[in-house]
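For anyone still unconvinced, we reproduce a single protein record, the chain in one-letter code, the fold tokenised, and leave readers to judge:
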Amino acid sequence: MRVSLKDVAAHAGVSIKTVSNVVNDYQHVTPAMRARVQRSIDALGYRPNLTARHLRKGRTGIIALALPELGNPYFAELAAAVIDSAAEHDYTVLLDHTGGRREQELLVSQGFRARVIDGLILSPIELETEDLGESAERVPLVLLGEREYDLPYDHIAIDNVAAARAAVRHLIGVGRREVAFLGARRGHSEPAQLRVRGWREELTAAGLPADDGLVAATDGWGHADGEAAMVRLLDSGRRPDAVFAYNDPMAIGAMRVLHARGVRVPEDIAVAGFDDVVEGRFGAVSLTSVAPDKTAIGRLAVESVLARLGGGAPAPRRIRAGYHLAERESTLGRPPRVTRSS
């Protein structure tokens, strides 16, 4: 049986209005009264009707999240971060899969679900500035990812150039002198361009080769793309002593090829990836990877949408989320075994 505000009020011996004030977290309730009502809420197992609460504010209680690749572990983990953050604010997340296709991204950005959502968090791949400039501004829009748009929307991303440089700097620091890059996307791709730029800048600063013969372009960014790119690189006659991959699935695919060909990781070729997805931590050789703060990205995205809804948000911002380099066995090797003395 559903517990109502009236039931809680009767149990606590207070008015329904007082219970409502506590449930809606109004400020002008004394700590003693708040504690008294909360005890009754806990005792009866009362759960507020969130739908009704949002409707009273003229909202739906739903935020849409549109991502290009749900099969990519990074986006799956990012979606979980957004959903968890939204739940803390009593919001539900409606998940959209665009497939990175321009027509689907256009459909999402131009508000085809504006009547059922309060805001949109979008990670675009193919949209151009003019596409988003024509978007229907019916709900707050927050952008994720590395595509840069000169538009009045909050945009949350990490510094891809700096992060790529950190990964390459680490590879140089462990003694590598010929570092290849896997995943320079054929055609336009700003994220890939930024990571290649970081790779090239760090190698050039160290006086090491950063020529096109060390760059393997791909059509996609999955495990199979990493495999194919690694095969082409090895078959080209070039033998780097390190590989920096556009993302972790590509790095994992590359390590599969190296294992099949009897190339040791990291003794012969060190490997580093990007995104720090869970599967990279549990392979036969754990993967060194750039780790974006996905929890912070999800939290910042949700908070940006809600700030726009509340009308108190600052001017549109470019927000830099944090990252760190998670150093593991694919570049450092296995830790020495500890043997017990007799």
Observations:
- The longest helix spans residues 294-310.
- The chain has a mean pLDDT of 87.
